[in-house]
Request: fold
Amino acid sequence: MHTQDREKRTYPFPEFPNGWYVLANSSDINVGDVKSYHYFGKDIVIYRSSNLAVHIVDAYCPHLGAHLGKGGTVVGNNLRCPFHHWQFDESGKCVDIPYSEPQPKACLKHWAAIERNGQIITYFSTDGSAPHCEVPEVNELQGDKFPGWSQSYFSKFEYTAHVQEVVENIVDLGHFIPIHHVEEVPHIDEMTFSGPRATLRYSTKNKVLGKIFKAMLHFEYYGPTYTVVKVKTMTDIVLIASMAPTANGQLRHRFHFRMKNMIPLLNPILLRIMAKQIEHDFMGDLPIWEHKIYREHPILCKGEGAIMKMRNWFKQFYSSETPPTKNAIPLKEVS
Ligand code: FES
Ligand SMILES: [Fe+2]
Reply:
């Protein structure tokens, strides 16, 4: 079947909800690094100045359009363009031109940038609105300041989906047996919504290597794209789950894991095994997301009410001025 003959995947809301998006790990950007990324269909650059601050800026120089990630350098706290060596300060203002007066009109766009829980995060909104909540500092992820916990384990992978489908999936109880192979349909013990925050608790029973393990999961949502998950199973695991759109409907998903120490020398291996298991479970959904359409008015059965509650909560993250998503998240080819 030719691509143009296929169903189109459209959504009655915009492609990007307003929220906190993790773009990189803190350890990816050392002092003096200037690195190129592509998010929200835009080229951006992330750099760390001498005072340790991280900055996220548009990739193209306001002068004659050179890509700042291709040869741009950090000079003190400024970013210097590779083409004519104009320098931009931490507010984006042009502060130095080697052969002329600084041009105040030449301003480099800075994106919101914070560093928290070992990651670099921006706030993206389609209407320029202010952040709807703060990103918390999670004690268990603060390293030596919180003893008894392992080192961090980070992972990332990509897939095609709309952010809302990923969040909605967590309360879609009927898919847990067919897709995630749990032993019984989970029961939601708690689900609360309060402005941009939401909380969800449920437990599952999973079979790993022939043995059944019970896991209690506690999700804390800070807007649509930044979630702190606390898992109680053989030990305690804390993770940040986040996703950020790159281009053509792709999401870059990131996990940051730590676990309560179990056996000192084996902790890194045990964490890796458990993290891989969580990732593996998560990835069960990918083939469904990559091929599914969005049903605005689904036919649901008894016990599936949480899906619509989650959808209602999600509405607040879309700017009413931003048009709905048409064909931006292509369906994967069915071979
Ligand atoms: S293009 Fe950047 S300084 Fe000229
Ligand atoms: Fe799932």
The first strand starts at residue 19 and ends at 25. Residues 267-283 form the longest helix (17 residues).
